Amino acid sequence: MMIEERLARAGAKLAALRADRDVPPFGPPLSEDRIAAFERRNGIRLPDAYRRFVTVIGNGGPGPYRGLLALDPDQHDPQLAGAFPFGPDDLPSLWTNEATAWAYWDMYGGTVPLASQHDIEWEYHETAEPESRLVLSGPGRGRVVMVDASRDWFPPIYHPAHDFLAWYEEWLDDPSSRVHRHGSDFERSGVRLDDLGDADPDEAVRSAHVVAARMGNRVTEQAPPDVCEALVRAALDAPSARVRAAAAWALGRVRRDVGRYALPLLRGRDPRVRRIAVGHVAASAEVDRATAVTSFRGLLADPEPGVRAAAASALRDAAVLRTLLADPDSPARLAALERVPALVHGAADDRDVLVRAVRPLLRDPDPDVRAAAVTALGAARDHVPWVRPMLHAALTDPAVPVRRAAALRLLRSGERSARRLQAAPVLLADPDPVLRYETLRGLGRDGRVRDWGADARALLADPDPQVRAAALAALLEAGAPPPEDAWAALLADPCGPARHRALGATLHAAHHVPPRPGGPVHEALHRTLDAPDRELRSTAAFALRRTCAARCRPVIAAALAREDDRVVRYSLGEILGAISPDGTPAGP
User: Fold this and answer.
1) At 127, is the secondary structure helix, strand, or coil?
2) Residue 275: enclosing H or E segment and its boundaries?
3) What does the pLDDT read at residue 95?
4) Angle of helix 305-315 relative to helix 289-299, nearest 10 degrees?
5) Residue 12 to residue 35: CA distance in whole angstroms
6) Bridge-based pairing state of the strands 157-158 and 130-135
7) Which of 27, 63, 220, 421 has the highest count of CB atoms within 10 angstroms of its CB?
8) Three-point CA angle 495, 70, 187, nearest 5°
9) d(Cα 219, Cα 179) in Å, to the nearest integer?
10) What are the two backbone dihedrals, phi and then psi, of residue 431, each rounded to the nearest 5 degrees?
11) Contact at 8 Å (CB) between 586 and 556?
């Protein structure tokens, strides 16, 4: 069915819903011109189903959970053009995925928020903050994904709907559902674990991810045997390879030790399942070591290199990994490189031999292999003296992934020495904005940005807005503020995330680098009190508490009169109280 027909059907359902109950109105639809300008400004193209919805039906209004959030057509955020790092068939872990290791990237870049779900209590009275987002890029483009806005408790979980309109119509078809009125997507009715083998693959994959998220973060609630057994059956027998892999992955997250359940999966028909099962069994204290070793040895001849590499790692068999490192096929070399760090850390006898086997791969024709080789060598940097110079040399590789892999090892090594700083001039001049940004953050944390002050000040005019904000933050952190004109310009940056970072840096530095009263930065903070974004107003108010004087009373009083946020009003009232002759707030 064409999108226009589906929109008409959704409109008819909405009309029926409004006739039956009180439903809040939609925001006015956005014009095609405004949407096109938004897309050009951010370098994206909105998925068609959502694009047509906000231009035909409305922008923000009734919808799942707390309702549809409105799209800000004036937003400028380079992160929207980023690649969302999780696909529908990925088996993600937010804590190990290198795509999320860089502070430059918003973990959920490449998405736009659709609906805020209700917070749910997780572990030890902590709360997860589920929200629904629309994916703009990658294999999940056009689909809706549930993420944790607090970025702590669960990886992204894709909704089974194939696009935005299908997701929205699910709510329209069951508007009285508790989950859609005041719950979270965890409460959405889906397939039971016992039905994974017969369910739609998207529904079954979602259910596997949900049970992994729910039970994987509750250390006091281990999955009972029937849950583990249902996941094992699905991993072995489900018709869909996607479902089999998701069930095997979920098994390792629902219980601390699932080795005895995973043993049959070592003979599963899917190489992905066998590879996952090796990890489950290897980590088990319940499986007899002799049984595990016998099972792993049988996998050293597996036709899939990833399975052979996993088995070799579990057996600490460096010889098999060295053979794979020399394999003519890139997937085999990549599978072996993935396992090298574990052996480098735990097998001192084989460390030097393994590292020497990895070294030639720094010249591999495949950039992905070179990047993986850098990562593997990085694991040995504290044990093998000649590794560090090779990481520095990789900073000049023509491929961005290789340079990023090297920089990550150097910048995150914990070193605050001259050796780490040797890389700074190369990284600050790198064409990749991620590397420039991360280097500035590292220098700022070390308090060594003064050593490269000229380079950092030059980056205040960088074409990338986040790099500009990072340069300001590094200089302020080092107590070496830039000229106030340059500083003030960043506080009004049209890029929202960069402006937030610049204001945050100003607030953080206010106690030791206070803006000059009446100067450009001080006046820029005054102007920010009129920003539409509540967070910007709040940060500016906090930053102004140390700098305002009696001459600021009219500006602060006017801001207080128009402010409707309780927290911001409190901050503004404190400023007025501090600058009033009698010490009491003035104004409304």
Assistant:
1) strand
2) helix 271-282
3) 47
4) 150
5) 25
6) unpaired
7) 63
8) 115
9) 25
10) -70, -15
11) no
**Token output for 200:** 């739609």
pLDDT for res 25: 84
**DSSP letter (8 states) at residue 46:** -
pLDDT confidence of residue 587: 41
Render the burial of 66-97: b for 16+ CB within 10 Å, e for the rest.
ebbbbbebeebbbbbebebbbbbbbbbebeee
Is the CB of residue 136 less than 8 Å from the CB of residue 80? Answer: yes
Mean pLDDT by 10 residues, the chain (588 residues): 88 81 85 96 95 94 90 91 88 61 82 91 79 94 92 86 94 66 78 85 94 77 88 95 95 92 95 96 93 95 96 93 96 95 76 90 97 91 82 94 90 56 85 92 70 82 93 88 92 90 90 83 94 91 88 93 93 89 47
CB 343 within 8 A of CB 354: yes
Q: What is the pTM of this model?
A: 0.88
**Residue that has been written with the tokens 């700098």 in this structure:** 547
CA neighbor of 246 nearest in space, from 216, 265, 272:
272
Rounded (10°) angle between helices 465-477 and 433-446: 10
Residue 362 token pair: 């720094």
* Structure-token pair, residue 282: 């290897």
Question: Which pLDDT score is estimated for 588?
Answer: 39
Q: Which two tokens stand for residue 26?
A: 């939609």
3-state SS assignment for residue 337: helix
Please report, to the nearest 10 degrees, the dihedral formed by the alpha carbons of residues 578, 579, 580, 584 taken in order. Answer: -20
Which pLDDT does position 414 carry in this prediction? 53
